[in-house]
Amino acid sequence: MNIEITVLLIILLPLIGFLINGLMGHTYSKTIAGIVGSGAILGSFLLSVSLFFTAPEEGTVVTFFKFLEVGAFKVDMAFLIDHLSLMMLLIVTGIGFLIHVYSTGYMHDDEGFHKFFAYLNLFIFSMLLLILGSSYVLLFFGWEGVGLCSYLLIGFWFKNIDYSNAARKAFIMNRIGDLGFLMGMFLLLQQTGSLDYHTVFQFNLNSIPTSTMTAITACLFIGAMGKSAQIPLYTWLPDAMAGPTPVSALIHAATMVTAGIYMVVRSNALFVLAPATLEMIAIIGLCTALFAGTIALFQNDIKKVLAYSTVSQLGYMFLALGVGAFTSGMFHLMTHAFFKALLFLSAGSVIHAMGGEQDITKMGGLSKKIKITFACFTIGVLAIAGFPFTSGFVSKDEILLAVYDHNKLYFYLAAAGAVMTVYYMFRVWILTFFGTFRGTDEQAHHMHESPMNMTIPLMVLAVLSVIGGIFQFPHVFGGKEFLNDYLKPIVTNLGNGEVEGAAMKEIIILVVTVVGLAVIWFVTKKNYAVANFNGNYTGLKKVLANKYYVDELYEAVFVKPITGIAKFTDRIVENKVVDGMVFMTGKLVTWSGTTLRYLQNGQTGFYLLVMVISMVVIFIYNIYFKL
Amino acid sequence: MFKDIFIDHYIYLSLVLFCIGIVGVLTRKNAIIIFMSVELMLNSVNLLLVAFSSMFADASGQVFVFFTMTVAAAEVAVGLAIIVMIYRNTRSIDIGDANKLKW
Q1: Contact A612 B95 (CB under 8 A)
Q2: Whether B5 contacts chain A with CB within 8 A
Q3: How many C-beta neighbours within 10 Å does residue A576 have?
Q4: A496 — pLDDT class (breaks 50, 70, 90)
Q5: Is B48 among the domain residues?
Q6: CATH of the domain at B83
Q7: Considering CB atoms only, which of B26, B98, B100 is closest to A612?
Q8: 3-class SS at A444?
Q9: Looking at residue A1, what is its pLDDT?
Q10: What mean pLDDT do residues A294-316 have?
Q11: Is the pLDDT reported for residue A219 higher than 80?
């Protein structure tokens, strides 16, 4: 099967799944809807695997048709198949498929089952456009498409007004970032005359002045800020937990939020020429990692902890990109996709077992009752905390090493963030699974392990979380860094590939990690494996638990004034001025009619008088004013 | 009093006749009197046309007078017919009584 058909099918299968489930889903049973939805993604995944092994080394562009041609600006419906896009492709379709299978179990009782699968397929389609597109235009199509699907899926249970508001908030914040992205695209187009990757990256980029390049990359990064939830555009992601858990796993952990990272890595040729922007990315990434980490320490909703954890981990990825370690960033993207999806799906399993309860103050002691979920969640926690040799350990340490070479202060802050990560993950793990059960008797009675279509994806992800580090295992421990070589044609990592004294540093990190994990385990076990847990906090902890009141700040500074302007515009400009002008025209006509009709009073003498006067006026006008 | 008759005299005469005609049209109530006034205005114009024709020795003035006289005659015929019809229907030729065609 040649490459064009493979690529075409990979992209179109999810779209076809969307159309079938969306248009006809209500006519057949949920089982068939699940099979259609999951089958489409399975097809894409299998084709992606075959593409992985058969695609040419140096990357090809598969063009289908000319999409747009305006003067010298040309955009083709074309897709770039190179190592970077193949890596993302496998992640998206693989994890997407697992989550589809999981959703057949999780959403089983929902009325809108087929609609859910239709939206999920549409999401995968948009994400594929994003990662496979061969120009910024196609990337932007996918970018907008995933934003739309995020809105549809977060607000899936739209009858609840809070969920709809959360969906709207996510979409609007995305759009704010998109404005920056568009500006970046426009500037790039102006400088290079094209938005096609091949043309742009072959362009003599050194001829573009650094200030302009900084502007372009900064604008592109603003788009990434919105999509990947960095400061200041991150508040939508915790609210996005209003959507069903599979949505949180797929979109807000593994795929959509990684689009920003992918975009930056894809454009690394531009970013390496703008060191100021890279520094800014590193700083914002670091601040986000720490900020979100501190908030996660005191959240009582299991999904919110994971949401802030995602924001924090995305901060780490951007920190890696900011110091020029693009491969490390992509690697962390991959491992994070594994363990964060695992954590979210396990959390969903817990919520399912608790009959919909998400508050960890009401959980506890679940380790004995839902053993498989417990095991999987534990593996996820170990991976994210960086237990030695899990995938999380390998990727996070690679980032830390790269940061150490760039700036020691960043390194210590990032390390502090890593400690926080361990603490809040252990906290939620212990509060949920250890200690004694703090919920109601009815919940204890109904508790059961999830069905197989939910636990098997969990187990697959658990295995991947453990062995995922293999792709970039450090030389020191006897591994081979496959990913470095794999992505070398596409990314230029700043800083030297071989870190000085790597062996020593790695050993230190290993020892520190083990000791740190042990210490934090004892501390959190003491604090949280308890029978009574009051989730109310006071003082500084309250500020953190209330997310530093950032939402309230945004509400006061941005939302209220703009809503005020909107209300003003509606009540006064729309109702009084515009409507006023329109009605005025009508009133004018009516008024002139009612006034002028008195000219027709039927009196012949009056008519004659008017005639005479008019004659005189015309006469005077012609004689006196025209001559 | 005057040795010659200058063109001014013709103009003044025509003007006076015209003004009398206008006053008559505006002031009188009887429809037939109004018609007479209109005829008076037309005739004043005819007089002026002929006077100028004579002054410039151009025959076009007199030819135009032919036209206006014909039109005047036709107009009187039609107008008097209308007045007769109005009288037959409303028993009055007072123009103040024909005021039904109003808002």
Answers
A1: no
A2: no
A3: 10
A4: low
A5: yes
A6: 1.10.287.3510
A7: B26
A8: helix
A9: 67
A10: 91
A11: yes
B47 interface with A at CB cutoff 8 Å: no
CB pairs under 8 A between A and B: 31
Distances (CA, A) of A14 to A28, A36, A63, A123, A253: 19, 9, 19, 8, 20
Model pLDDT for residues B39-92, shown as the tens digit of each residue? 999 999 999 999 999 999 899 999 999 999 999 999 999 999 999 999 999 898
Domain parsing of chain A, residue ranges: 1-270, 274-545, 556-625
Is A605 in the B-facing interface, judged by CB distances under 8 Å?
Answer: yes
φ, ψ for residue A300, nearest 5 deg: -110, 0
Instruction: Give chain A positions within 8 Å (CB) of B96.
Output: 603-605
In sequence order, the 6+-apart residues with CB closer than 8 A to the CB of A596 are none
Per-residue pLDDT for A627 more than 70?
no
Instruction: Establish if B3 belongs to a structural domain.
Output: no
Taking only the tens place, the pLDDT of each residue in A329-342 is 889 999 999 999 99
Cα A437 from Cα A434, distance rounded (Å): 8
Alpha carbon dihedral A301, A306, A307, A311, in 10-degree steps, equals 140
Determine the pLDDT at residue A484.
76
Give the separation between CA A272 and CA B84, rounded to whole angstroms.
Answer: 105
Q: What is the total count of domains within chain B?
A: 1
- Best residue in A600, A601, A604 for a mutation probing chain B (most B CBs within 10 Å): A604
CA distances from B58 to A427, B45, B53, B62 (A): 121, 17, 5, 8
Task: Please indicate whether, in this complex, the C-beta atoms of A598 and B103 are within 8 angstroms of each other.
Answer: yes
Place of tokens 């206006």: B68
**B20 pLDDT more than 90:** yes
Which positions ≥6 away from A621 have C-beta within 8 Å? none
Q: Is residue B1 part of a domain?
A: no
Residue A89: the pLDDT is 92
* Distance from the first to the final alpha carbon of chain B: 57
Beta bridge partners of residue A75, listed in sequence order:
A68
- Residue-number span of the structural domain to which B26 is assigned: 13-93
Contact B100 A598 (CB under 8 A): no
pLDDT at B2: 62
The two beta strands, A60-70 and A73-81, are antiparallel
* Residue B45 at interface with chain A, using a CB cutoff of 8 Å: no
Q: Smallest Cβ distance to A604: which of B22, B95, B103?
A: B95
Contact A345, A99 (CB under 8 A): yes
pLDDT per residue over A568-581, tens digit each?
888 888 888 888 88
d(CA B12, CA A468): 119
Q: Record the pTM.
A: 0.82
For residue A208, the 8-state DSSP code is S
B101, part of any domain: no
Q: What is the pLDDT of residue A436?
A: 81
Does the beta carbon of A159 lie under 8 angstroms from any beta carbon of chain B? Answer: no
From A299, A151, A314, select the one nearest A229 (Cα to Cα).
Answer: A314
Question: Does the beta carbon of A596 lie under 8 angstroms from any beta carbon of chain B?
Answer: no
Residue A605: partners with Cβ closer than 8 Å, 6 or more residues away: B26, B29, B95, B96
> Alpha-carbon dihedral of residues A39, A41, A43, A49, nearest 10 degrees?
-140
